[in-house]
Write a structure and sequence with these properties.
Chain lengths: 722, 166
């Protein structure tokens, strides 16, 4: 007999999770052997004293496959050496939302995972208490044992699983969570559970999946989004060596669903790719995108100088500008960006009349499964989605277009297929970070304080009514609510270029704009920038604009002050060198960063970056530092040289030869500091990225007096020194 | 039959009827079932597909099978002879180098070739040898630290946060 715990989410009950136990009849549970304690969905304790913990969320490099199970093990008081981590099935009814996105995994999982571990620990204590006939309060845990100090008795967890599995689950109120001083695992450095498999080349990733009789597919989409196939030389392609099938698929729900195109299925990926060279398609591009970034940019520049529709209007920015002691204005521009995860989009699918089985590197696997069911006309219960390790996400794999393509190809071809996108497919068929323009006006009062902020935001719209996906400005964007007179106007430029979430959506561009212009203002006022930002934050208070997600100005000031000390802010710099500071609050994380740069004739070296963050307590210090260093470097790589432009709806940069991501010689050292006073952890996949580029741009100004307002910097003739 | 034969991780392989134009990458992945070598760009720009050809690092996505005839190929799967991890692989684990991990096979193959020819590389040596390998997660600092650790060499600059051992 085993105890199974199922979880149901009580909506409206303070967002909390309630665990409920059901005790199946003896022998009715085939999954767990009799003596195992499968105390809940997340973990199983075995009589040998080991534990298997499910990793519930997709692993895209943010470390949750290791860090989430650490939370369970902590409350279970289980040494990490005895833990085996297994990737959970995709089952949101059991595990809750299984999504890697919005830096939410840790924040949403912290409490339920602690309770999962603590519930099992309570059962083990109770089992020990009963076997010794002592009060449960006298039974302590540690090192996978329960001990009774007074009698000197102890039992290993493994010796207690059978007895514990016969117990009823404790009431919610009886589950004790550890206090931070009792943590043994949380806050330590634990290496990735897949590291050994990674360094020995074991098949882990979506693209590594194999099946009996698997065939390999490539899929050719229209050169501009929205295009469809008019005609293709399918018969020629079908006759080529190794080609198993070639056919046209009609579009459905594109661009997030199925784009129209030609599938080629072959015995190897290479044969499919080689056949593709001979494919001739006549595309119907009547309804396809004709967009050009050059045209959008120059149109946007003109429109930005005019006025737009009111989006936010706090106080009276126009009047405050008119009465300001000093007033400045400037325009900022940033481009479209592809995500370019190193593992190209891919999916392995086997669709039969009975159902579908799918292996996909998706950040939203449950959504992928339901889309697959829809596109194939299958009962969703008959679609099994497997989570694979994911070779980078950055938001690209929140979308499941590659899943939809693979299942459609497998269904049509009647065989299991692995669809692999080429790099060119990946860069030309993304849902891009939208480009945008801002014309800013700012006012300073007699004391050099910020008195007015006026931003005309020019962005893209795919429906002509509202900004395209991830192309809007939300309430609370820095420095809204910190300056009394704050106005944002918006102008929408029609564009059919698909857009979507890119690491720290919105914030990744808005931080560059706001921090650059704030520095222009403090420089105009001849003020120290750290002092200017601290003054802007004002007294300690919780700002609130969206369901508890507002910024706490006390925490914001704390990271600013800490990074100031960490970087020895304001120290004299030699000629040609400078310090720059930027701050951003995103995804409930606070980051202040100081960059130190050396500049020689538009050649840039970032000597080092100091990053101070507050995301509450750090769970896995190794991975947390990794995220910050990686985010900063990602932000700077993007700042210097990355953009995707379009001509007649076609992407102009489709591989790494024209998309110069940062390489090792340019990567700066990053010194990371965390402030951990707040007891609730939030996510770290995104919030360290937004301040990096503006910290460097502000440092360039300090070093040279040159103000850079358009990304990427290569457009202005800049390059890395090394 | 193309009569191409080669050695992969110490085992003789007869490529039989495989297309001599097929890049070695796809032969390894799709035909031999060795998926440790990764596809990233297909044009030799990212280094994810790096393997050793007679001990030298090459981009297998851009090397036709015919050019590997009679060569000794080592892939990431063949690096740990007899299951004993190399010092580089150990250092990668000790410093928790991977984030997503996708590029790391290629990084390790490039690093391994570097150490074979330059057992005590400087930072500049490492930067130069590793500049052909992209890491989209930007684990560059830990990669450099892990190479130094495996080599027993010292970095010129200390980076405390990134070089911390677990």
């Amino acid at each position: 007999m085993s105890v199974r715990l199922t979880r149901r989410q009580l909506l409206g009950a303070g967002g909390g999770l309630v665990v409920a136990f059901t005790i199946p009849a003896c022998g009715s549970d085939a999954k767990a052997p009799a003596a195992d304690l499968a105390s809940n969905a997340w973990l199983t304790l075995k009589p040998d004293g080991s534990a298997t913990i499910f990793a519930t969320h997709p692993e895209i490099g943010q470390g949750v496959k290791t860090t989430l199970p650490m939370i369970v093990a902590e409350e279970l008081d289980m040494p990490w050496e005895r833990v085996t981590v297994t990737q959970a099935p995709v089952d949101e009814a059991t595990f809750g939302r299984q999504v890697a996105g919005g830096s939410t995994s840790i924040r949403n999982s912290w409490e339920p995972l602690r309770r999962a571990g603590a519930t099992a620990r309570a059962l083990l204590r109770q089992a020990a208490a009963e076997s010794w006939d002592v009060p449960i309060e006298e039974c302590e845990t540690g090192n996978a044992q329960v001990t009774h100090q007074a009698s000197g008795q102890s039992l290993d967890y493994g010796e207690l699983t059978e007895r514990a599995s016969a117990l009823k689950a404790p009431a919610e109120s009886q589950i004790e969570l550890k206090s931070p001083d009792q943590y043994r695992l949380v806050g330590t450095r634990i290496g990735g559970v897949d590291n050994r498999s990674i360094v020995t080349g074991q098949p882990l990733f979506g693209i590594d999946q194999d099946l009996p009789d698997l065939r390999f597919a490539t899929y050719v989409r229209a050169p501009a989004t929205g295009g469809t196939v008019a005609e293709a030389n399918l018969a020629d392609i079908q006759a080529l060596p190794g080609v198993v099938d070639a056919f046209v698929l009609e579009p459905a729900q594109q661009p997030r669903g199925l784009r129209g195109g030609v599938a080629i299925v072959a015995e190897t990926t290479w044969q499919a790719l080689k056949a593709r060279r001979q494919l001739q398609v006549e595309w119907n591009l009547d309804d396809a995108s004709k967009d050009s970034w050059d045209a959008l940019r120059s149109d946007g520049m003109q429109r930005a100088a005019q006025s737009g529709d009111t989006l936010f209007d706090d106080g009276n920015a126009e009047r405050a500008l008119a009465s300001a002691q000093q007033q400045i204005s400037a325009s900022y521009v940033y481009p479209f960006l592809p995500h370019a995860p190193l593992e190209p989009q891919n999916c392995t699918a086997s669709v039969t009349g009975r159902g579908a089985e799918i292996w996909a590197p998706s950040q939203t696997p449950a959504r992928g499964a339901s889309l697959a069911a829809e596109i194939c006309g299958l009962d969703p219960k008959r679609v099994v989605m497997h989570q694979t390790r994911i070779g980078g996400g950055f938001g690209r794999r929140l979308y499941n277009d590659y899943v939809v393509e693979a299942v459609a190809i497998s269904q049509r071809a009647g065989m299991p297929v692995k669809l692999t996108w080429t790099r060119e497919d990946d860069m030309a068929n993304d849902l891009y970070r939208p480009g945008g323009l801002h014309h800013l006006k700012g006012g300073l009062d007699k004391k050099g304080r910020l008195s007015a902020w006026h931003n005309h935001f020019v962005t893209v719209t795919s429906d002509g009514e509202k900004p395209s996906s991830s192309a809007g400005m939300r309430q609370g964007s820095f420095p809204q609510h910190l300056v009394k007179n704050y106005r944002v106007e918006q102008t929408l430029l029609p564009s059919a270029i698909p857009t979507g979430a890119w690491r720290a959506p919105g914030s990744n561009a808005l931080a560059f704009v706001s921090n650059g212009f704030l520095h222009e203002l403090s420089s105009t006022a001849n003020r120290d920038h750290l002092e200017f930002l601290l003054e802007l934050m004002g007294r300690d208070r919780q700002l609130s604009w969206r369901r508890g997600s507002g910024m706490d100005t006390g925490r914001a000031k704390a990271v600013l002050e800490a990074v100031g000390r960490q970087s020895n802010w304001g120290r004299p710099m030699p000629a040609g060198q400078g310090q720059g500071l930027a701050f951003y609050y995103s995804h409930r994380g606070y980051f202040a960063e100081v960059a130190e740069v050396t500049v020689e004739a538009k050649r840039l070296k970032v000597d080092r970056v100091f990053a101070c963050g507050d995301v509450g307590p750090i769970i896995n210090r190794s991975m947390a530092e990794h995220q910050v260093v990686g985010s900063v470097s990602d932000g700077l790589s993007t700042m210097m040289g990355l953009e995707i432009t379009f001509t007649d709806g076609r992407a102009n940069q489709t591989n790494f030869d024209r998309y110069p991501m940062m390489r090792m010689p340019s990567a700066p050292p990053v010194e990371v500091q965390f402030l951990e006073d707040n007891p609730s952890p939030t996510g770290l996949g995104e919030p360290a990225l937004p301040p990096a580029a503006p910290a460097v741009v502000n440092a360039i100004f300090a070093a040279t007096g040159e103000r850079l307002r358009e990304l990427p910097l290569t457009k202005g003739g800049w390059s890395w020194m090394a | 039959m193309n009569n191409i034969s080669l050695s992969v991780n110490g085992k003789p392989v007869s490529a039989g009827d495989a297309d001599p134009e097929m890049p070695l990458l796809w032969y390894l992945r799709d035909v031999l079932g060795l998926p440790g070598t990764k596809f990233g760009c297909g044009i030799g720009q990212c280094g994810a597909c790096t393997v050793h050809l007679n001990g030298s690092p090459i981009r297998s996505c851009s090397l036709p099978l015919a050019a590997a005839a009679d060569a000794e190929i080592t892939t990431i799967e063949g690096l740990a002879a007899g299951g004993q991890l190399t010092a580089l692989q150990e250092a990668w684990i000790e410093l928790d180098v991977p984030q997503c991990g996708y590029c790391q096979a290629g990084q390790i193959m490039s690093a391994s070739a570097l150490l074979a020819s330059n057992p005590k590389p400087t930072d500049a040596d490492i930067d130069s040898a590793m500049a052909g390998n992209l890491c989209r997660c930007h684990t560059y600092q830990r990669i450099r630290a892990a190479i130094h650790r495996a080599a027993g060499s010292r970095p010129n600059t200390t980076d405390e946060t990134s070089g911390s051992s677990l």
